[in-house]
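Q: I'm writing up a methods section and want to include an example of the input and output format. Could you take the sequence below and give the corresponding predicted structure tokens, formatted cleanly so I can copy it straight into the document?
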Amino acid sequence: MPIYTIETTYHLPVYRHRSYEAPSLAEACRLAIEDDDWEAETRDYESAGETYVTGAWDGPDCAYSGPALPVPSHFDETVQRKADHFEILLGLVKVLAGAGDAKQSAYWVERAASAVAKAEAILSGARDPDPDAPMPRPHILLSFDESEVRATIGEIIAGDETFATLSADAIGDDDIHAACVAVAAAADLSEGRGSVVFRAALAAIRSVARRAMEGRKEGERGKEK
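A: Here is the clean output for your methods example:
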């Protein structure tokens, strides 16, 4: 059976009582924080913090004599777990609060659910959720990818003589994205998924066709001048 050297730590509060003359409570607190005279300190053994792991090595009695092993984060101090996880939650909030389509992204929704599960474990003092354990899985009523719209554009142009003067390559990614956003905002969720994809592709084509027609008209007006 393997043997590991584990370093564990706990925080022991040290406090002092001292009076400060100040115009306000906030100013008194600032003076207390800046005061570096701790001769009258008292150690509060009754309020010692939790024991947590600060290092691990493979082998007996070998602390700091070899490469440290990665320790699962749920063995860290609770306050540090909260601080580390805060950055993850903040990043997810920024993503989900960004572009409208990000809110409907299964990729980010699943990661948000995983982050929430870990946050709840931290608050309850439990170990991190098993990464292989099933997470809450919200269901998205309808989703489609812009690459599907891109593929549908070629099919529409090939089968509709109205757009014979356009090529699929003339439809840019920005055109497709704008069309998808517009169609998604106006879509009736009772519609079939295929219908929404088709409408998005058609909207992108029509947008480029209108620009092309306006360009030709502008060119004709220039010639008349």
